[in-house]
Design goal:
187 residues, five-stranded antiparallel beta sheet, four-stranded antiparallel beta sheet, 38% strand, elongated
Length: 187
């Protein structure tokens, strides 16, 4: 049987711990042939901290992990009985009752859905995103550069460049200034 991608719901904040625990349980049970990759969907984000550029990791699906696995009774129990796992997405365990073949009813991701999520993980690792997304009309404060501490309004957003055009008041005149995302913060 082929492996498919499944989404597993975990307690928020414990995604990495659950990933490691499942990997250990798989190894102990000797079920490595049923499992492929186990991923915590994350992306790199850039922000300004104390005047320095800082790159950090952000989970874009908090409380969920992705598992590439062959769904059978053994693999299902290995994952389902892991501490801090609340279940597989797409099946209501409280309504499942005593259905011993419940694992057969769990939907996997389609190829298209899996590729979309995996692409976002890869893209997030290669090209860090800004921590905050801006839209036209947002009131902002400049946090870095020659206009630090100026207040302004976002006039235009250039997501492909990671820049915004902000109108700030300099000597009583509205002046457009183009800044990087990390040089401004929302008010």
């Amino acid at each position: 049987m082929a492996k498919n991608w499944y989404i597993v719901h975990t307690h928020t904040g414990f995604e990495n711990k659950v990933k490691v625990t499942i990997e250990e349980r798989v190894k102990l049970a000797g079920h490595e042939e049923y499992f492929g990759e186990i991923l915590v969907p994350t992306e790199q984000v850039v922000e300004m901290v104390k005047g320095a550029r800082k790159t950090s990791e952000r989970k874009f699906f908090p409380g969920y992990i992705l598992i590439n696995m062959e769904m059978n009774e053994y693999s299902w129990h290995t994952v389902q009985e892991t501490p801090r796992v609340t279940g597989f997405v797409g099946i209501n365990m409280s309504q499942a009752g005593t259905d011993k073949d419940i694992y057969k009813k769990i939907p996997s991701l389609t190829e298209k859905e899996a590729l979309k999520i995996l692409g976002r993980i890869e893209e997030g690792a290669n090209k860090p995103k800004p921590k905050v997304i801006f839209v036209e009309g947002d009131p902002v404060r400049v946090t870095d550069g020659p206009f630090a501490n100026f207040q302004g309004i976002v006039e235009e957003v250039y997501p492909d460049k990671g820049r915004v055009r902000v109108t700030v008041s300099i000597f009583g005149r509205s002046t457009p200034v183009e800044l990087e995302y990390i040089q401004v913060s929302k008010n």
